[in-house]
Amino acid sequence: MNTPVQQVGRTSLTLVPIAIVSRGVAFLIPVAVALWFGVDLVTDAWYWALAFPTFALVLASSAVATAVTPAMAIIRKEAPDRLPTLIGGLLFWTGITALLLGAIICSAGPWVLSNYTDFDEQTRELAATFLWELLPFMVLTATSAVLRAAVVVDGQFKHVAFTPMIRGAVVLLSTWILLQPIGAHALPWGLVIGELVQALWWGSLLIQAGVGISPSIKLDPTIKRVGKDLVPIFGGEVLMAFNLVVDKGFAALLSSGSVATLEFADRARIIPTTLLHSTLVMVGFATWSNLIAKGERGQARRNMDQSLRWTIAICAPMLAGMFIGREVLIGLMFERGAFDQGDTWNTASVLGWYIPGILPTLLGILAVRAHVVERNLGLILAVGVASVAMNFSMNQLLVGPMGLHGLALSTTINLSLMSFIYVICLVPVLPENLIKRWMPNIGIVVLSIFIAGFWEVVMGVPSSIEDPSLWYGTIACCTVLALSGRIIWSERTP
Q1: pLDDT in tens, 103-115
Q2: pLDDT (average), residues 187-208
Q3: Burial environment of residue 493 by CB neighbours within 10 A (0 to 12, 13 to 18, 19 or more)
Q4: Phi-psi bin for 135: left (phi > 0), alpha (psi -120 to 50), beta?
């Protein structure tokens, strides 16, 4: 019989190919935006406006799902007949909250644009319009998170991993169809249509699994508990996400195209984060929640420790390869149509300052979920407050001498420090002999940093896929990845 640790590992690995293909389709969305609009006032306005609905994304993908999953796991174990009413009530209250928050954001948009950007009048008007057009997207994204959490707790991991493919295809198709009649306004409405289809898909999965959805506006004890848990989680997650808004605000004070360049670099940066969310985070968090609901806290903690070490061992050499081939990556993703070679170089240059902070961010994402099941919710809020204060200060310090590079470096420093705090605060509940267990994984990180540094200083940054140094670097990183696989295999649970 497989242990929970083995089940999480095996399930996560089976999801990787699905997640790569599915998220690959989703990542075609910014590729298409680059093709259609390049780097100009439309993309500046679009990505500035999209930064504010990120609050809805955080509310949905992180805060709501994080607060709801443990509660659903408990209800599913103790009183499964209450689950349909719980889902219906959560849908109502989450939707109302997202609508109110979204309306506040949209109303404040013109004032923020006038006082905290150097956009011209046409760009400001377009950005303000985009905000209101994205309001349905904010509501749908928030409510969809409840449906997604229910599907995950039910164990339908493959369906969830497959969903971004459906959503991405719908967004691309609907945006392309609307592009001719309504121009740039196809961007927000394409997202709205894609989000609606995604919500309907998750709802149909629940119904097919025999989990009904009963409309309800009643605040039962479980919803009240979720609401209480949501306050610190939502506060911490929104404050962390607010760093993106702060970065866009600073970029809006730089030369034209800076906001779009920062956004395209960020789109490449979140590829590993998105894949982790679609695999190990989704499976691990649901498993920990179900184990806690069964009273198996010790097993859940061993699973947390294993998940953190797997992330270090697997992701470090991959990120080294991403750093080496960043210019080729950006070129393959975006360089076509209105997005030219100069845009590729600028975006890849910014991405280079982002990449060192990705591994700490991945560990922080896992650690936050672990703190939720351990009920350390106040820590999440405290770290969020510290994150915003530090990011704003670092941006002011670095944007002058370094421009966009300074904003990316500020994000890297900030996320690394916050993730370090999350992991350190988790150490007391992890199994003993932590240093001994983690040393091989730390060695993988050191070796990966050495390879990335060697290529940066000695070999140079490959500029095309035909460059031999790109393939030599790939071989070096794959060798370290094979060593990581050997370490993981040797540590497998008998």
Answers
A1: 888 888 888 888 8
A2: 89
A3: exposed
A4: alpha
Question: Which burial class, exposed, middle or buried, applies to 78 when counting CB atoms under 10 A from its CB (0-12, 13-18, 19+)?
Answer: exposed
- The better pLDDT of the pair 16, 127 is held by 127
Distance separating alpha carbons of residues 89 and 437, to the nearest angstrom: 44
The 10s digit of each residue's pLDDT in 390-414 is: 888 888 888 888 888 888 898 899 8
What pLDDT was estimated at residue 52?
66
Report which of residues 76 and 472 the model is more confident about: 472
Q: State both tokens at 348.
A: 């890849």
**The Cα angle at residue 275 between residues 271 and 278, in degrees rounded to 5:** 140
Average pLDDT, the chain: 80
Of 323, 330, 249, nearest to 34 by C-alpha is 330
More confident residue, 203 or 218: 203
pLDDT in tens, 28-65: 777 777 777 776 678 788 878 887 666 556 555 566 77
Measure the CA dihedral 416/419/425/426, to 10°. Answer: -130
**Rounded alpha-carbon distances, angstroms, from residue 4 to 12, 304, 432, 471:** 12, 11, 19, 38
Both tokens assigned to 120: 């011209």
Q: How many residues does the chain have?
A: 494
Q: Select, from the ranges 33-42, 88-97, 319-328, 432-441, the one with the highest average predicted confidence (pLDDT).
A: 319-328
Please spell the DSSP secondary structure of 69-130, one letter per residue. HHHHHHHHHH-GGGHHHHHHHHHHHHHHHHHHHHHHHHHHHHHHHHHH----HHHHHHHHHH
Through-space distance between the first and last CA atoms of the chain, rounded to whole angstroms: 10
Structure-block tokens of residue 461: 């940054």
Write the burial class of residue 159 (CB in 10 Å: 0-12 exposed, 13-18 middle, 19+ buried): buried
Residue 56 near residue 102 (C-beta atoms within 8 A): yes
- For 292-348, list the strands marked E by DSSP: none
Task: Give exposure, 449-485, as e/b (b: 16+ Cβ within 10 Å).
Answer: bebbeebeeebebbbeeebebbeebeebbeebbebbe
- Residues ≥6 apart with Cβ < 8 Å to 189: 133, 174, 175, 178, 182
